[in-house]
Amino acid sequence: MADDSPPLAPRREAASQPAPAAGPAAVLSSLRYAWDRSGPWRALRVLTDVNQRNGFDCPGCAWPDPKERSLAEFCENGARAVAHEADRRRVDRAFFAAHSLAALRAESDHWLEQQGRLVEPMVRRPGATHYEPIEWDAAFGLAADELRALASPDEAAFYTSGRASNEAAFLYQLFARALGTNNLPDCSNLCHESSGKALLRTLGIGKGTVQLDDFEKADLVLILGQNPGTNHPRMLSTLAEAAARGAAIVSVNPLRERALASFAHPQTLLGAFGIGAPIASQFVQVRINGDVALLKGVMKLVLAEERTKGGVLDRAFLDEHTVGFAELERSIEEASWDAILKGSGVPMADIERLARTYLEAERVIACWAMGLTQHKNAVSTIREVVNLLALRGNLGREGAGVCPVRGHSNVQGDRTVGIDEAPTEAFLTRLDAGTGIRSPRRRGYDVVDTIRALEDGRVKVFVALGGNFVAATPETPRTAAALRKARLTVQIATKLNRSHLETGETALLLPCLGRTERDVTGGRAEFVTVEDSMGVVHRSEGRLEPAGPALRSEPWIVAHLAHATLGDLPAIAWRDLTRDYDLIRDLIAESVAGFERYNERVRADDGFLLPNGPRTREWGTPSGKVVLGAEPIPRLVTGPGELVMMTIRSHDQFNTTVYGLDDRYRGIRGERDVVLVHPADLEALGLEHGERVDVTSHHEGRERTVRGMKLIAYDLPRGNCAAYFPEANPLVPLESQADESGTPTSKSFVVSLAPSVATP
Length: 760
Ligand SMILES: Nc1nc2c(c(=O)[nH]1)N[C@H]1C(S)=C(S)[C@@H](COP(=O)(O)OP(=O)(O)OC[C@H]3O[C@@H](n4cnc5c(=O)[nH]c(N)nc54)[C@H](O)[C@@H]3O)O[C@H]1N2
Ligand SMILES: Nc1nc2c(c(=O)[nH]1)N[C@H]1C(S)=C(S)[C@@H](COP(=O)(O)OP(=O)(O)OC[C@H]3O[C@@H](n4cnc5c(=O)[nH]c(N)nc54)[C@H](O)[C@@H]3O)O[C@H]1N2
Ligand SMILES: [Mo]
Prior knowledge:
This protein has four domains: 21-85, no CATH class; 108-190 and 410-604, 3-Layer(aba) Sandwich (Rossmann fold), CATH 3.40.50.740; 193-404, Dimethylsulfoxide Reductase, domain 2 (3-Layer(aba) Sandwich), CATH 3.40.228; 642-755, Barwin-like endoglucanases (Beta Barrel). The chain is 35% helix and 16% strand. α6 packs across α25. It is of the alpha/beta class and 760 residues long. It is globular. One ligand MGD binds next to α23 and β15.
């Protein structure tokens, strides 16, 4: 039904127009949340420490810190994330005695996270109905026995969520590899894996190429498939400054995300009074997964301009620095306007306007997030972004380049220090030389492989360094059943979540310190280090009193688990390493490229920048050049009555952690079990705004259903619909993965809607 869409019907939203993004409402909202959870003193203490040079790195996102810091260097959502961690409530042995696993399973994800901090190591013994306390040493002994009893180290999998510090993550991967497996699935597999794969192949580095100050020089910032107002609010200040300077900011998105339309800069006078200024100069309402078609259209107009006027392409750059231009040119010429217009769903006039802006810009930055990475052809889409930039040499020079905006605050650093199921030989060779281990060379399991391996018994021990594996992955009930088949599950966590309740036969729940807390593992205050979205490594040091005396740091827990399982290795005295984190960093300096003189350089005020060849036009590809090529316009075929669904974040959540039930900027309040559909599609389907429906997803002949979701008439492209992550995860088909990166296609899968048979 998507292919003959009439023009958009008039805007009809569920609620009235919300106020500008950020502004006083945001400040109040974050202060209220902080005060409620942490009390006035802890709230003040924690909020004045966020992202300061001697404070801790905000766990809210990976956007870098500016050189000039204001007293309050945090955003509404970052404040909520730290207040959530600084929670005064406790989930202790009395809590677990009072609540059976079955009773806890019946509670909502929101309720679970709201019970407070985990403070004691707990164990669930085979067949037990409750978790019970266990001493740290006994817990490590139990886990070590299970790990040593495995027929092969590949029967264990070690999941990481991107909040773990470089120190914790490095020890963790070292433990897995010393044990003998590369089974290191991580949240990156669900997130920016497609960016990594696409950029590695085209530029020779799996990361972005811009720095914060490039935004001060760009004439055009493209924001594709990203909602910074909610997910990277500190980025809005950068964008607002660029816009005020006259740079064009173009948002490419199926949704008219509010914060880009009007933003009240909290650190300006007008902003403080809630008076907003527009950031985005153009909004391009693309269909879900219509980005390749749109970019193809823009490139077609660029080539046409080159033919008529000349001097448009950066020939010198294309000749000297790229391969594959001829193929790219052919693919652009061969794409028909019909395919471009239908595929993108964008009117010709909007494509022309975007092309004009692109042609007028000397310097262009392209930013993107999950709206590009979670599709079947995500890797190809990101290569197409590189194609567009390359035409006018917008790579490897000031004010221009690629900027995949990372999610978790240290997801990029975790990958750099070895959390990778498919590491390069170069990485392993260096790791082995630096640490004296002999790493396995077999490719390990990513997230989806791990779920399948748990399902059929190939993985028997599952360890998670943070995160919420069950709720973050596709087909929640299926993943839950898979985890329940494990012999042992080990969860290292700060707060209770669904993954702690879907346990293996035996389960350990190990409480750890959070970013905000003082870490005196070696007898004195320690800092850890993280890498931001732009490759800058810097310190993070918490100051709050820990939530309980039994809490341990992540590096300490990992080192003790490794010691119990493997004992000390010739060059690795696991527990001694955590007496002084400088020792862990020295080991990283020896065994990971780019970390020379780590301890010295990370003590500089703003940390240090990891090597990034493409910034100076040194491409790490086999040919030594940027690889361009032909990327086909994708087709997702929907049958009659079917829609393409994307799963998105609301303003009141951090991934699977739901803070509240409102989505302020989208005008949705008090509920999350909703499906956003275009009013004309509702009418065509004979459904009504406010009605409850059962949503069924269809993939390769298999169906999954979530019942009783409420319909909301919303301004999005015809044939598309949206629901929230993680509520809609039971619908995401496990078998539907991006080519090359394996990322689940959480932003495009086929669904149908039917009046609900059961109202919740
Ligand atoms: N407050 C808060 N901050 C966060 C997080 C959080 O949950 N809460 N999560 C963190 C993490 S781990 C991540 S990865 C990031 C996520 O940050 P985002 O990627 O911004 O988050 P999403 O809500 O998943 O949505 C992406 C956007 O993509 C759009 N989109 C969907 N499909 C398409 C498409 O086909 N094409 C285009 N052009 N756009 C599309 C959606 O409409 C939405 O605006 O944020 C990080 N920061
Ligand atoms: N349908 C759909 N699914 C998605 C996405 C989507 O857009 N749509 N997005 C995907 C993306 S981008 C990502 S990154 C993943 C996220 O997947 P995960 O990283 O696995 O999930 P989170 O919700 O971030 O994990 C939250 C839990 O982490 C624990 N935690 C918090 N802080 C700490 C800490 O300091 N240490 C430790 N050890 N534990 C801590 C708490 O117990 C908390 O409950 O989800 C993915 N899933
Ligand atoms: Mo993410």
